[in-house]
Write a structure and sequence with these properties.
263 residues; alpha+beta; Alpha-D-Glucose-1,6-Bisphosphate, Chain A, domain 4; 2 domains; six-stranded antiparallel sheet; 13 strands; globular
């Protein structure tokens, strides 16, 4: 017997970003744009088109574009049940809507709403509690992308490593080892120089200037079961980026694994 999901969940926020409505639309409603500040994205750019977000090795989310109204409104649905490994009848799709409103002075407001219906299980409310803090830092990436790299295609660098302990302790070690400063500080992070653009909770976002321009996010999170993950995610914008990633991604991976966490 299938259950009828009836517990409503909703996340809403808005961000102001630089650019025309068309520039913002390219960034939030195309595969190339989404991949430049979010996760690697495949999208058929039309109503009814398929959608896939890559979320890590062997992990991803499939969906469908349900409304496509350039340059103003995008709606897509993701298969929340399969993403969480649950019974397909147990949950409604996860629906996300982006509205773009042009402002005077060359900026736009992007209003984001995500909603879904569940059964009221404890893990569902936990999913929604972590979704906001997990998702919103990406919109700092979007702001930075539209400020410095609009319309450019990103090359991705990602590495992460799991360690015993909690994310707070791991963050303190990672932050100090990399010499991450306060907002506005010029930093050198393992041979790359840049400026700290945002300091969040267990996360720092750096705009890289050399040797390859781009954005670098450094973060930790709790896995549960007494473990935490340290990770880096970079979006790089240059013809040399692929060579840089081939060289630096294994080096980052090794460095993150070698972090010494006190027992």
């Amino acid at each position: 017997m299938s259950t009828t999901p009836n517990v409503p969940y909703r996340l809403e926020f808005s961000v102001e970003v630089p650019g025309t409505a068309e520039q913002v639309w390219q960034a939030i409603a195309t595969a190339k744009g989404m991949s430049a500040w979010f996760t690697p994205t495949e999208m058929e750019e039309r109503e009814g088109g398929s959608l896939h977000f890559t979320m890590g090795p062997e992990m991803g989310s499939d969906g469908q574009v349900t409304a496509w109204e350039p340059p103003r409104r995008l709606v897509y649905e993701e298969d929340w049940a399969s993403l969480m490994g649950k019974d397909p009848d147990a949950l409604s799709p996860l629906t996300s809507e982006f509205l773009v409103e042009a402002q005077s002075g060359g900026t736009c407001i992007v209003r984001v709403t995500s909603s879904g219906f569940g059964t009221g299980a404890a893990w569902e409310s936990e999913f929604w509690d972590t979704m906001g803090p997990g998702w919103m830092p990406f919109f700092d990436n979007l702001r930075l992308y539209l400020s410095y790299f609009p319309g450019q295609e990103a090359t991705h660098l990602e590495a992460s490593a799991s360690h015993p302990g909690d994310a707070e302790t791991l963050w303190s070690i990672l932050h100090d080892a990399l010499g991450l400063g306060d907002e506005g500080a010029t930093v050198e992070v393992r041979g790359a120089t840049g400026t700290v653009e945002r300091v969040g909770e267990r996360q720092t976002l750096v705009r890289l200037t050399a040797p390859v321009p781009g954005m670098l996010s450094v973060f930790t999170w709790d896995e549960g079961d007494g473990k935490a993950t340290a990770g880096v995610r970079a979006y790089l914008f240059s013809a040399d980026a692929a060579d840089y990633v081939r060289r630096e991604q294994p080096a980052w991976q090794a460095w993150l694994q070698a972090i010494s966490v006190p027992a």
